[in-house]
Amino acid sequence: MAVLAQMNRSHLFYHHSVDDQPGSGTRHCHALYEMYFFISGSGTYYIEGSRIHLSPYTLILMRPAAYHYFHVTGDSAYERCALHFHADILPQEDRAFLLETFSGRDKNPADPVVLSVQNNPELSGAFRRMDKACLLPEDESRPMSQAILTEILILVMGLRRRPYPLEEPARLVTRTLVSEIIAYLNSHLSEKLTLDRLASAFFVSKYHLCRTFKRATGATVLEYLTQKRVLQAKSLLEQGVAPSMAASQCGFGDYSTFYRAYRHLLGQTPSQTTVKQDSP
Predict the structure, then answer these.
(1) How far apart are CA 59 and CA 119, in angstroms?
(2) What is the pLDDT along the chain (280 residues), one digit of tens a residue?
(3) Does domain 2-173 have CATH number 2.60.120.280?
(4) Where are the domains of the chain?
(5) CATH class of 176-278
(6) Taking the CB of the first residue and of the last residue of the chain, which one, N or C, has fewer CB atoms within 10 A?
(7) pTM higher than 0.70, yes or no?
(8) CA-CA distance, 195 to 250, in Å (whole number)?
């Protein structure tokens, strides 16, 4: 893999890379917002059980804790940019407005935002300027990269508000049984969820549900639920919620189970997350 540009800073991570011999990515989720700009190659992107059939110059916006991975379907060079950021990096007075760009349509508000931006040179140019920002000294790179991030979000907001034929091309996104199951799980994270309950809700056998879910996400239903609940708890802790209350609100039956899962997945204890947030 050839890395063309890279930035690794607190609250903002960016890389632009090309693979001449691409391989499929690993299934993962994280606590950051992500903008994935697919430039060239051949493949399919899976997000929360939905399939996105990629074409050059496709831009995907994913919210925190979205399970996703890229699956290669050809041998052509795979070029992409990925921009990850924490909401705190955005100006507080504009944060809610800028993050609206990550909200799906009314029918499925949790769906990823998918845009075809081949005919939008402003967005492509903004990513090229992010490449250049990676080469600057830290005191110049930091404010410039934040300004470019804000610019990209505003451009996307404008594109989504205009009724152009290429806006959010529905033909690129295919919802599956797993995407419906995931939507159900995400809306009931704080509740006691069992395989019997899920199988009954979707009129399938537990065996079929587990096999289909594992094949689509690479995780069991329990593994998926645990990761989602831990990331949701992390967000609550960063907002000042007490660890025991966060565990309860996120569906953990007891604090010890929550503690072990949190430490295993994030490499720190719940109280360490709270202390980090409160420290100057």
Answers:
(1) 12
(2) 789 999 998 899 999 999 887 776 777 788 899 999 999 988 888 888 788 888 899 999 998 888 888 888 878 889 999 999 999 999 889 999 999 888 866 555 557 888 888 888 999 999 999 999 999 999 999 999 999 999 999 999 888 877 554 444 444 566 678 888 888 898 888 888 899 999 999 999 999 999 988 887 778 899 889 988 998 898 889 888 999 999 999 999 889 999 999 998 888 898 888 654 443 3
(3) yes
(4) 2-173, 176-278
(5) mainly alpha
(6) C
(7) yes
(8) 18
